[in-house]
């Protein structure tokens, strides 16, 4: 299986980071919470695995398409 890359779907800011590299995650787990137009937007993983890389920090402003994290299949 390939590494899952998780990208921002819209311009937003990183409100809360819930994982770090090495964190085990299950399909559907929330990795980060973004904020856009006063709405909180959870960013989920689609498959189980381990967080390989985390490319964001709290307070960072993301553009559409920016890489948030990678999930290595477990």
UniProtKB/TrEMBL annotation:
PROSITE patterns: BIOTINYL_LIPOYL (PS50968). SUPFAM superfamilies: Single hybrid motif. InterPro entries: Biotin_Carboxyl_Carrier/Decarb (IPR050709), Biotin_lipoyl (IPR000089), Single_hybrid_motif (IPR011053). PANTHER family: OXALOACETATE DECARBOXYLASE ALPHA CHAIN. The keyword Transmembrane helix does not apply. Keywords: Biotin, Pyruvate. The keyword Metal-binding does not apply. Pfam families: Biotin_lipoyl. NCBIfam families: PRK05889.1. Residues 1-72 form the Lipoyl-binding domain. It comes from the Bacteria. This is Pyruvate carboxylase.
């Amino acid at each position: 299986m390939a590494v899952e890359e998780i990208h921002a779907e819209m311009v937003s800011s990183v409100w809360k980071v819930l994982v770090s590299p090495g964190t085990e995650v299950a399909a559907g787990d929330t990795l980060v919470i973004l904020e856009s137009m006063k709405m909180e937007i959870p960013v989920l993983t689609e498959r189980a695995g381990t967080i390989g890389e985390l490319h964001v920090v709290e307070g960072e402003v993301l553009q559409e398409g920016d890489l948030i994290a990678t999930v290595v299949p477990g």
